[in-house]
Amino acid sequence: MIREDYTINREEPEDEQHDELLRMLLEKLGECRAQLRDWHEKLKRLRHRVAKVPIGSQFKSEFEEASAATLLVALQLKSHVVCSLAIQSAPSFIDQFRSLAFRQFLRDNEIGIRDALFDRHCVGLGVLQLAREGEELKLRHVAPEDILIDTRYGFREPHYVFRRVRLEDSELFEYYDPIRHILFAEGKILSAEPNLLEDTPIYLIPGIHAGGNLFPISDAELALPQQQLIDEIRRTLLNSARRSQPIMEYRVGDIEEAELSALESGERLIIGTASGQSLRPVQVPFASSEWSALEQLARQDMDTLLGISDVLRSSLTDISGSMTATQAIAEAALVNARLAADLIEVRAAILRLAEHWHLLQFGEPAQFVPVPEQQPQVVPVPQAQEGGDTQ
After folding, report:
1. 312, 81 Cβ separation under 8 angstroms
2. Order of strands, sheet of 188-194, starting from the edge strand that comes earlier in the sequence
C-alpha cells in the first residue's frame, strides 16, 4: 500500500504541491548529475576504446591491418553465454503455467537482456526496465548514460532512480521511488501517480564491486591492457614480416643504370655486372618466437579476466532449442568461480523482475518453488594399509 505521509496533500492548491514537488525533483536531479557527470563521460570513452571507434564519431572509417577486435567479440560472446544461462535458471513459481509464461517473457525480451549484459561487461553497469505498453508488459534495455541515481546508496537497489527519455528536440525525465512514479520536464510535471509496486521497476546489474563507495568496474577495464598488448604484438610481427624480404646490396659503379632499373622494376632476374660479385642479398632477421608466445599469454590472461574459455565460444543452443554438447559444458562451467560470481548479480536482478512481473500480471505476490539446499559431497579418502597399499 502507498504510505499516506507521502501522498499529495489535497488541502493545498495543486499548483503549489506540483511546484514543491518539482523543486524537490530538480534538486535531486542536480545532485545525481554532479555525482555521475565524470562517470558518464568515462563510459563514452570506454565504449569507443572497446569498439575502436574514434571519439566524436559513430563509426570507423579507417582500418588498421594489425588491429584485432578480440575484446569486443569476447564481450559479445560472454553476454550471450550469461544471458542464456540466466534465462535457463530463472526462478520458478509454484504455478507451473505461470513459470512457463515468465520464461517465455524472458525469451521474448532476450535481445534487451543481452544488450544490458553487454553494457555491464563493457562499461560496468547494465540496466533493464519493466514497463507497460498498452495491455502488455515489456522489458526495456536502458543505456547506463540515461540513468541517474544517488551513488551514496549503491548501484544495486538505489532509493530512487531517474531515467532520461530522449526526444527529437528535447528530453523528459521519469522518476521512480517506492511510493511515486513521476514524468516531468525541466520546468513542468507532466504526470504523477502512485507506485503500486512500492519498488523501482528498474533493474541495475553492476559489474565488479571493489568495495566502499567505488563505482562498479567492467570486464573491459580489466582486459583492455591485454587488448592493447595484442595489438602491439600484431603490429610488431606485421612490420617484421614486411622487413623480412631480402634487401639487395650492390657496389656502386659495378652495375649500369639500365641494368639496375630492370632489376628494380622486376623486368629481369639476371643482370650483368663488371665483377660478377657486386650484388648480394642482405637478410633481415625475423621477429623472435617470444612475440608469438607473448600473444598467447595475453589471450590467456584475457580469458581468465573475462571468465570465459575457448569451449564457451560458440552458440549454446541450436535453432530447435535442444541442448548441445557445448551448452552442457557451459552449464558445467558454472563451477568456474568467475562465471558463477557474474551470475549472482544477474540472478538477483531476474528475481526482482520476476516478483514485479508476477504482481503486475496477476495482481498478487509471487510464490516461488523453494530451491533445495545442496549438501556438499564428501569424497572418501582411501585408507593406507600396512605395506603401503591402499584399500
Report:
1. yes
2. 147-149, 161-166, 171-176, 180-185, 188-194
- For residues 4 and 9, what is the distance between their CA atoms, to the nearest angstrom? 9
Contact 142, 127 (CB under 8 A): yes
- CA dist 346 and 205 (Å) reads 6
pLDDT at 174: 94
Average model confidence (pLDDT) for the chain? 78
Beta strands in 186-336, from DSSP E residues, in sequence order: 188-194, 202-206, 247-250, 279-282
User: How is residue 10 written as a grid cell?
Assistant: 489535497
Q: Is 327 within 8 Å of 314 (Cβ atoms)?
A: no
Q: Which stretches within 307-336 are classed as H helix? A: 325-332
Q: pLDDT grade, residue 158 (50/70/90)?
A: confident
Whether the pLDDT of residue 282 is over 80: the answer is no
Q: Is the pLDDT of residue 288 over 70?
A: no
Q: Rounded to whole angstroms, how far apart are CA atoms 281 and 245?
A: 10
In the structure, what pLDDT confidence band is assigned to residue 163 with cuts at 50, 70 and 90? very high
Sorted by sequence, the CB contacts under 8 Å of residue 206 that are 6+ apart come out as 120, 124, 125, 155, 156, 216, 345
Which grid coordinates are listed for 280? 648480394
Residues 6+ away with beta carbon under 8 Å from 278 = 250, 251, 254, 255
Residue with cell 520476476: 354
The whole-angstrom separation of Cα 171 and Cα 186 is 8
- For residue 222, name the pLDDT band (cuts at 50, 70, 90): confident
Domain boundaries defined on the chain: 4-218+335-362, 222-317
